[in-house]
Amino acid sequence: MNKLIISVALTGSGTSKEAAPSVPYTADEIARDVVAVAKAGAAIVHIHVREDNGWPTMSTEKFTGAFEAVKAAVKEAGVDVVVNLTTSGSPAIEPNDLRMAHLKKLRPEMCSFDAGTMNWNNGGVFVNTPDFLEELSKCVVEEDIKPEIEIFDGGMIGNALYYIKKHNIPEPCHFQFVLGVGGGLDGTVRNLSFLKEMLPEGYTWSVTGIGKTHLPMVLAGLAMGADGLRVGLEDNIYMSKGVPATNVQLVERAVAIAKLAGREIATAQDAREILNIKRQSLK
Asked: DSSP string covering 86-119, please?
């Protein structure tokens, strides 16, 4: 069986220090967490950025600061990691070009590609319009960035396959199933199996569960032969009910469970080979 890629969603756009005191906000905090999770076994880090007060932002300046801090920190620590920068944003505030400006400037190895619009947790709308997905598809091809195609609901797979074919996004592609968000598919084995069976032959996939579905989806992903597992404070802030987690603890637990399941943990370079990433953005 192939090596298992552990990715870490370090920050997200909603997790607060009030809820999770260790969640990183600043560039230096993000960089320190990147080094720590890389040492713990993570191959990929998925990065959102915040204003210093914790407010989510798509500021190119903030992404640049975080990216450069990570680059310096991993070099000093002698570790390697694949950087995956988010393209999620608030369309009411941030136009399409701002959601991609950091990609064109920094050219990370990976970026998120949220494959559709959905009602988010019964409290708002997560908007990824056709025109945004058209522009993002062109961007990942032109800038040679591996898209991590995030799937929250079944119909998003059809959306993604449409843009992959239309814009010749290099295949096989990599899908990240994000289950357990209100408004999307629940984090169940049945739903994960349903999504997995929809993927074209040869595509790679990873899974995460939000909140209480986090650990069940780790276990289900391992049982179903996932190429990757995603953990981190963006998705889950507890080790168990009422027990706060850190990003490092979540990685260490995933690594330990994976080893019990007989899976070897992928290095960053292994992840590049599995996902067909041919360049390193932190070099």
From this structure: -----TTTS-HHHHHHHHHHH--SEEEEE-S-EE
Residue 92 lies in a domain: yes
The answer, as to whether pTM is greater than 0.85, is yes
Residue 173 lies in a domain: yes
The per-residue pLDDT string of the chain (283 residues; one tens digit each, 9 = 90 and over) reads: 689 999 999 999 989 999 999 999 999 999 999 999 999 999 999 999 999 888 999 999 999 999 999 999 999 999 999 999 999 976 556 788 999 999 999 999 999 999 999 998 888 889 999 999 999 999 999 999 999 999 999 999 999 999 999 999 999 999 999 999 999 999 999 999 999 999 999 999 999 999 999 999 999 999 999 999 999 999 999 999 999 999 999 999 999 999 999 999 999 999 999 999 988 988 8
Q: How many domains does the chain have?
A: 1
- Domain hosting residue 140, numbered range: 5-275
280 within some domain? no
Q: What CATH number did the domain enclosing 204 receive?
A: 3.20.20.70
What is the secondary structure of 18-83 as a DSSP string?
TT-TT---SHHHHHHHHHHHHHHT-SEEEE-EE-TTS-EE--HHHHHHHHHHHHHHHHHHT---EE
